[in-house]
Amino acid sequence: PIFKGRYLKILSMETERQSTIPNALPFNSAGSSSEDSAVKRARLPSSNQDETQNAVDYISQLPDAIIFHIFSFLTTKDTIKTSVLSKQWRSTWTSNQYMSFSLPPGGSQKSKGFIAFVDSVLSRYTAKKLKRFLFDAPCPASMRFSLGWWPQLAVERDVEEVAASLDRWLQFAVEHDVEEVSVTLNNHRHKIYALPQILFSCKTLVSLRISRCCFSVFGTVNWCSLKILRIELAELNDDGMMRVLSGSPVLELLELKRCVGVKHIIVESKSFRELVIDSHEFYGQASMLKISAPHLLKLCLLGKSRGGEFRLDEVSSLIEAELNFEMLDEVKARADLLKGLLERLHNVTKLVMGSWCLQALSLMEARDMFLPSLKCRHLILLGAAGHEGVPEAIAKILESTRLLEKLFLQMTCTPDSEIGLNAEWAGCRVFAGEEFWNFVKWRIYQCLMHLRHVEIVDLSPPECTFAGQNSDQQYQFQIIPSI
Predict the structure, then answer these.
(1) What is the pLDDT of residues 428-443, one digit of tens each?
(2) Sign of the CA dihedral 39, 45, 48, 52?
(3) Which PANTHER family match (predicted)?
(4) What span, in angstroms and rounded, lies between the C-alpha atoms of 339 and 346?
(5) What's the CA gap between 427 and 432, in Å, rounded?
(6) β-bridge mates for residue 457, sequence order
(7) 234 and 190 in contact (C-beta within 8 Å)?
C-alpha cells in the first residue's frame, strides 16, 4: 500500500505537468516530447541507448497470481486506479476476486454516485468466483467525536440510502460462491439494516463478520463451510443462535462483541475450538449467559459488562482461558462469580487473569474462601498497581497452581478504578500492618521457588505502588527465579 500510494502520487504530479505543456508536440509514455527524447538519445552513449531501447517492463510481466495478491490489500477503488500502470493491468481488475467498498459520507447525492459505482464494478466482473466481499459505512473523522444526534442521523440516512442495493450486492456475492463477507455499519440503531435471508444459505461462506446489523434468522441456516463467525453490536436470541450454530457444523471460532439477548451458547460440534465473549450486554431476563461446549479448547471473556454473570456448564476440553473482563455492578457477588468460573477451569494449562479478577481473588482471600486447585502451567496476570489487594490475590492464585512452570506479571496503573476494594463491606480483614505484608511476601516467594520462568513487566509510573488499605504501607517484592 505504501508503494501504491507513492506511485499514484508521482503519477498524478506527472499528469499535471503534462497538462501544462503545449499540445503541439506528441508525447511519449514518459511525458516528454518526441523531439526532446531524440535529442537526449543523441547525447547518450551507445551503451546507454541500448539499455533504454531494451528496457524490460517488469510490471507487465507479473503473473496474475501476484497481481491478484497485490489487489487483496487494496480497496476496489484503488484497484481500479492500478489500470494506469500498464496495458496488462487495464482490465485485470475486472476479474479481481477481492472486493472492498466503503460508503462515503455526504448525503443522498454521494450515496447515489456510490451505488452507481458499485453496480458498474459488479456488471464488469468476469470471474466465476468471489473470494472476499467487504462493505463498511465508517463514521467520518469530523463526526467521530461529535456529541450531537445530527452526525449520527446523517450516517444512518446514508446507510438507508444503500440498504436495498446492499441486498443486491450480497446476493451477487452469494451467487458467485463468496468465501468471506464483512458488513460493518456505523449506525446507532441495530435494526436499520437486516441481513438478506439468502446470505444464510451460502454454502461456500468460510468467514463472516457482521457489525450493527439486524441478525434475524427465520429459516434454516446452511453454512456448511463456515469456520469463523464474528458478530458485533447485534440483538440476538436463543432460537436464532441455535439455528446458526446447528447450521454451522465446521465452525471453529465464534466471537460475540457487545451483543444482547442471547442466554445460551450450546455447541456440540467437535470442530468448535474458540469462543470469545467481549463486553456482553446483559438485559432483562437475559441476566445470565450459560456456555456449554464440550469440545471447546479456548475461552475468552473480555470487556466490561453489567447486570449479569457467566456460567460454564460443560467445558471439559478447555486448555486455555482468558478472564480479562470487568463487571460494573454486583461488586459483592464477584468473588462467587470468579470461584464458579475457576471451578470449571481447573483443567486449563494456560490461564490469563485481568485486574478485575485479581480484585475478586483478593476478596476471596479476605473472606477465607476456598480456591480450587488448578492444573495451570502458564499463568499470565494483568494487574493494576493502584488496586488494593493485588499482592494477596497473587499469593492466593500461586498457592492454587502447584504445577505452574511459567509466570508472566504485567502491572499498570489505574488510580481512578471503579472496582476498588472496600474493607468496610469486605468486612473480614483489614489490610494493614508490616507483619501482614511480610507474610504475604513470604507466601509469594515460596511459590516462586519451583518456577522455571518468571517475567515481570511494570508499565506503571513510579507513583503507583502496591498499597494496602493503609496508604502509608507500600508493598514491594523481588522475584528470584529458580535455576
Answers:
(1) 454 456 777 788 888 8
(2) positive
(3) RNI-LIKE SUPERFAMILY PROTEIN (PTHR31293:SF12)
(4) 11
(5) 13
(6) 410
(7) yes
